[in-house]
Amino acid sequence: MCRTKKDDKLKKRKSRKGADFVKKKRKKKMAAGMKFLFALLFTASIGLIATGVYLMFFKNRDAYERQAEERDLADTYIDDLILKLTDPEAYEKKVQEEAKEKAERMARRKQQENAKGWDDIEKSSESAGEAESAPTYDFSDLDYEDANYYMRDGIVYTPDYAKGTIQCVLEVPTAGIRRGVYTGTWEEINYDLDIWMVTAARPDYTLGETHMCIYGHNHTAQDLSFNRLKDVEVGDVFYLTAESGRYTYRVTNVFAVSRDEATRNYVDNFSIGRDKCYIITCGRDDGVKNYRYLDLIVEGTLEEQMPLLEYAKIRQQSGANK
User: Fold this and answer.
1) pLDDT-based confidence at residue 209 (cuts at 50, 70, 90)
2) How many whole angstroms separate alpha carbon 281 and alpha carbon 255?
3) What is the pTM of this model?
4) Apex CA 82: angle with CA 81 and CA 86, to 5°?
5) Counting beta carbons within 10 angstroms of the beta carbon of residue 123, is it exposed (0 to 12), middle (13 to 18) or buried (19 or more)?
6) CB 162 within 8 A of CB 192
7) b/e for 216-244, b at 16 or more Cβ within 10 A?
8) Residue 16 phi, psi dihedral angles, 5° rounding
9) Residues near 185 by Cβ (< 8 Å), separated by ≥ 6?
């Protein structure tokens, strides 16, 4: 049969329709694939966000709570230093009230431990099938004085989980750090550092008389311990507050060295002037500064020593303006 022009047009039309159908089918497949990919990315993003929230607010919750407690403790320490200086009678009254509360708490603890001791003995006797009466439980050799409590002998603070005492309060505004610096014997310093406290590097530093080196851990979670010490820059300031006054240090250097070098050249080097303070933590590789396996050190040079009474007036004024 002879093909006409009409037949050719019909054939071309059918061919175009077939091509259009194939294109539409491909587009649908691509759209479905894109939807699936989007859903997969969305689910992964939600998972990452949930993981981040868990790591920040739940996994490290105890650490954040302890740090909040440390900040409150640091503020209380400074407030009581000022109270002792400005109103000795009110301070003495507070000391007596806290001593009374402590004695009452120790008495309650003794009663609880006595009761617990007898209960444990009775259960042990019953399980062993003993017929005779239980032996007396002697508590006379136990020390009920809580050696790790917030106040004893005036200005001495130590939370229940720590040892030693607070020597001063460290504040680094640009890094969000405000914590008490603990000191004591070598054993107490090592113990406190092991449980993520901020400590003096040695027990024989005296603020205002020797240089200072302060240790603190570099927590993996943001804003914990010395995690943000890497954000401190030359020109920033930090403060140490103690009974002898408020010391303002200007950051004059930020660097990283090996642990041995940090110990030899800074921690144990008493030829350094008393106007120097070094804040030391373990370094982390943050992708910009290669501090991994090194100690990150912030060096401060004393710029001002303000009498505590003068600082008390400033602190009181700033509190009134809040």
Assistant:
1) very high
2) 11
3) 0.67
4) 125
5) exposed
6) yes
7) bbbbeeeebbbbbbbebeeebbbbbbbbb
8) -65, -40
9) 164, 203
